[in-house]
Amino acid sequence: MPNHQILVALSRNPIAEKLVFTLKDQASKFGVSLHSIGGQRGNGTYYVERLEANANLDTAQREQLRTISANFNADLCFLRSDLIPQDIRVLAMDMDSTLINIECIDEIADYTGKKSAVAEITEATMRGEIKDFKESLRRRVALLEGVHADALESVYRERLRPNPGAAELLAGAYERGLYTLLVSGGFTFFTEKLREQLGFKQTQANTLEIIDGKLTGKVLGDIVDGAAKAAHLDEACARLGFSKANAITMGDGANDLIMMNGSGISVAYQAKPVVKEKADAAFDRVGLDAALLLIS
Hints:
This protein is an alpha/beta fold and 296 residues long. The chain has helices at 17-29, 59-71, 95-99, 104-109, 115-126, 133-142, 150-158, 166-175, 188-198, 226-240, 257-260, 273-278, 291-294; strands at 5-11, 34-42, 47-53, 75-80, 90-93, 179-187, 202-211, 214-220, 247-251, 265-269, 281-283.
């Protein structure tokens, strides 16, 4: 393993020289030297600046530097110094609150007047407070019993929107020849529509049981939880002749961490704190397509 990292600052606005100076000054207090690499670049949407550290920064140190960057309206990423961007061949990402702007199950529950009850369980699960995702999902889906199946189409048409940069991310992935995988603890109704809309090569999610045009409150087959997400990624990589180190992974909740751990680059998008702390990149101010700058 390399004993140092590459820091990547990303912003929608030109990156201030004072940010770079402040990052270097703070790092020096940790006994770490930062050296700028190649100067600032822009692609018309984002600005990026890279710095090389002469030692690894621990979690607390990274969080301090991210806080400094946030004060300058920039996101900060920490990549392995030996990462070769061309080695990234797979893009795997979560759906709800990562690729799209909503938690679909919460919005379906709104049709029963139970959105707050379902959302409370969803939030606790994503924060990592409820460890058993399968049990969490069963509890939430049970609250959907009796909802008319038309509610799914209404949620998709009226409430679901791809998050900023989603279409651009997928277009860029295709240009680079990446295999694209959408792995979700959500539902196949939505992943299939997003596959058609955005062109994912593969989607994996849960299937809601529908009888006589209404949800029964049950899920069919094996539940896609965090371990299953990671397994689907591993299987896709193996089938293509790659390893997980050849993947860039994106998620926002605790159930994404197994999939993200050990990938070439892990990106936390508008994520819960437990995910940001463990991810290589944390996007709070830039869009999903900023990930393309990490692999170029």
